[in-house]
Design brief:
Structural class of chain A: alpha+beta
Radius of gyration of chain A: 23 Å
Number of helices of chain B: 4
Distance between the termini of chain B: 44 Å
Largest interface: A-B, 39 and 56 residues
Largest sheet of chain B: 6 strands, mixed
Number of helices of chain A: 4
Number of strands of chain B: 32
Strand content of chain A: 5-15%
Order of helices and strands of chain A: HEHEHEHE
Shape of chain A: globular
Strand content of chain B: 35-45%
Oligomer: heterodimer
Radius of gyration of chain B: 23 Å
Number of strands of chain A: 4
Chain lengths: ~180, ~425
């Protein structure tokens, strides 16, 4: 089928459609908290004590914590060794935080996307990414997340976090990414 | 997922949208056969009346195959004229082709061809073709197929098509082109990856994996209409489609029951059946041409290797037979069209991924390439060449190598990554 004249408007429509598909709701902005500064009036009739507003302690179980850089819940990547789908010990505390969160927030759903580095077969890498996603899912289930809250899928080698060739970059690509409702 | 409806709308938009080409595949010959048959293809009389030259397309086809050496034929030669045999003998030609293009009353053309044996001074065949001006290239490919088959005894593949994926910045296109890289058209364009295209045996459809739904889903796409349907979209990942030889079923890899495992579905997406079980990865299924076996990649033995299972009576107790034993990484099995050999990708000691060919009777393996990042081999339907993806200078290109390793070609597109080639079936 050749539609050279139609192609351009169709394509832009397509781009918009796809953009709509791919768009994520903007992240809720964190309210800035800190000391309020006031210029004293020329005639100070009353002197009010300057109070210091303490930073709000974050609630580790709240949805806002997912975006709070101070919360472990804001960290979403688990990295793997070459040709391996074993979750390393160093990610246990991160997975514990997410497992507890899912257990406490039954309405939240998670999509785990497994990824692989570029070496070798695309389809085998897709399967390897799936194994990684499932290893993360299994760890979360052991920590109290329910089966119906989590879908494990693979992006194989198709969505690298880093695009250069070399072990430093490949290590960043062998990963599982945890996305919550509204992020996928 | 809450975006399901939107995704479907996008999918409809995608399917309707076909884009014309901007960058064509160019084919460069990088190696040729040892004993090339010397053949003279004269200009056809009357071919100047159509805008494009015809004989030059025939010559390019034959030369690209690596099996022929072109000998200068001198002046144009009509199909009805007696070739200058003595002169051609001195030039070293074993065969000669003459032809004529005659316009008909309805705006179409009749092209008549005569292929002759030079030493014997005998006619080997004289077919005729009725075609429009737009079908000139297609006619030239059919003439090349005729010459190829007469002189080698195997069917020619110049009239076949290839599918491949072109990745440019933020954009993936599933393209279909003639086997010589001409006439490329995009069947699908997407911002998300497209992998694993597979031709239906009748050449009218492609099955492939698209990530437009933020996860891999298998589609079947009708090329003439641009319409497509979901063939597998279960919980988890859906990938690696392979057509059964009768075109009625697809072997696919699903993870709905945990882990990448092999299933068969009807081409319309109905009737899913699991065909093998392992605790590890099973993927990349391919039917043998006689439909008796399904070859696949599995890490059930500790490293990825190629196995096969009987497809008849396939079920959960069906034992798999290991096919590859050398090395620690053998993947992507592709049985040859005659079922006698198996192309696959092997990781060698120095970490290079190379195209390999196993003789299934003797289990002997030949490494066919000297590159390092070979992927996705695909046999030409006559089994003579294997098309595959590799990397040159950090860029994805397609390459082809003959099954004896002698003839080599490189197919590339300017300023884009080309990958995931699939050679279409013979068109009769």
């Amino acid at each position: 089928m050749r539609t050279p004249l139609l192609a351009l408007p169709l394509l832009s429509a397509l781009t918009l459609l796809l953009a709509a598909c791919g768009s994520q709701p903007p992240a809720p902005e964190q309210a800035a908290s800190g000391v309020e500064s006031r210029t004293p009036g020329a005639v100070a009739v009353e002197s009010a004590p300057v109070t210091q507003v303490k930073p709000e302690a974050f609630d580790a179980g709240s949805i806002a914590a997912l975006k709070d850089p101070r919360s472990p819940l804001s960290k979403r990547s688990v990295y793997f060794d070459y040709d391996s789908y074993v979750v390393k010990d160093e990610f246990q505390s991160l997975l514990t935080a997410h497992g507890k969160f899912l257990s406490a927030n039954r309405k939240m759903k998670m999509l785990i996307q497994g990824n692989a580095d570029e070496r070798g077969s695309r389809e085998y890498n897709l399967a390897l990414g799936q194994k990684r996603a499932e290893a993360v899912k299994k760890a979360l289930a052991l920590l109290g997340a329910r089966e119906d809250q989590i879908e494990a899928v693979s992006l194989g080698e198709e969505k690298p976090a880093c695009t250069e060739s070399g072990e430093e970059c490949w290590a960043k690509n062998r990963r599982g990414e945890m996305l919550y409702t509204g992020e996928f | 997922m809450k975006f399901n409806r939107l995704v479907l709308a996008c999918a409809a938009g995608l399917a309707l949208c076909s884009v014309t080409a901007r960058a064509q595949l160019t084919v460069e010959i990088t190696g040729a056969g040892a004993n090339r048959l010397p053949v003279a293809i004269a200009d056809f009389t009357g071919e100047r009346i159509v805008a494009q030259a015809l004989a030059s397309v025939v010559r390019a086809d034959l030369e690209r195959s690596g099996l022929f050496r072109l000998v200068d034929a001198g002046a144009a030669l009509a199909d009805s004229a007696t070739p200058p045999f003595e002169d051609l003998k001195t030039r070293g030609a074993d065969a000669v082709v003459g032809g004529s293009v005659v316009p008909g009353a309805d705006g179409r053309y009749e092209t008549r061809v005569r292929l002759s044996d030079v030493p014997k001074q005998a006619v080997l065949g004289n077919p005729a073709y009725l075609h429009s001006g737009a079908q000139l290239r297609a006619t030239a490919h059919r003439i090349a197929d005729f010459i190829y088959e007469k002189l080698t005894g195997e069917p020619g593949v110049f009239s076949t098509r290839i599918a491949y994926v072109v990745k440019s910045t933020g954009r993936y296109e599933l393209k279909i082109a003639d086997a010589d890289g001409a006439n490329d058209q995009a069947a699908l364009a997407s911002r998300e990856p497209i992998i694993s295209p597979a031709w239906s045996p009748d050449g009218t459809k492609l099955a492939y994996v698209s990530f437009e739904a933020k996860k891999p889903v298998v589609y079947v796409h009708d090329l003439a209409s641009g319409r497509r349907h979901v063939a597998a979209n279960f919980k988890g990942s859906n990938s690696a489609p392979a057509w059964s030889p009768d075109g009625k079923q697809l072997a696919v890899v699903l993870t709905k029951d945990g882990g990448s495992q092999l299933y068969v579905v009807n081409a319309d997406g109905s009737g899913v059946t699991r065909i093998a079980t392992s605790s590890g990865i099973d993927t990349e299924p391919r039917w043998s041409p006689d439909a008796h076996f399904i070859y696949f990649t599995s890490d059930r033995g500790g490293s990825p290797q190629i196995y096969r299972i009987a497809s008849s009576g396939a079920g959960l107790g069906n034992p798999a037979e290991r096919v590859t034993f050398e090395g620690s990484y053998n993947v992507t099995p592709r049985p040859s069209p005659d079922g006698k050999s198996l192309a696959f990708v092997a990781r060698n000691g120095n970490g290079r991924f190379q195209l390999a060919l196993m003789d299934l009777a003797t289990k002997q393996i030949q490494i066919l390439t000297d590159s390092a990042k070979d992927e996705s081999p695909s046999f030409a339907p006559n089994g003579r060449m294997i098309l595959y993806a590799t990397e040159i200078g950090g860029r994805g290109v397609l390459a082809a190598v003959s099954s004896d390793g002698r003839v080599k070609q490189k197919l590339s597109v300017q300023a884009a990554d080309v990958r995931e080639p699939a050679w279409g079936p013979l068109v009769r």
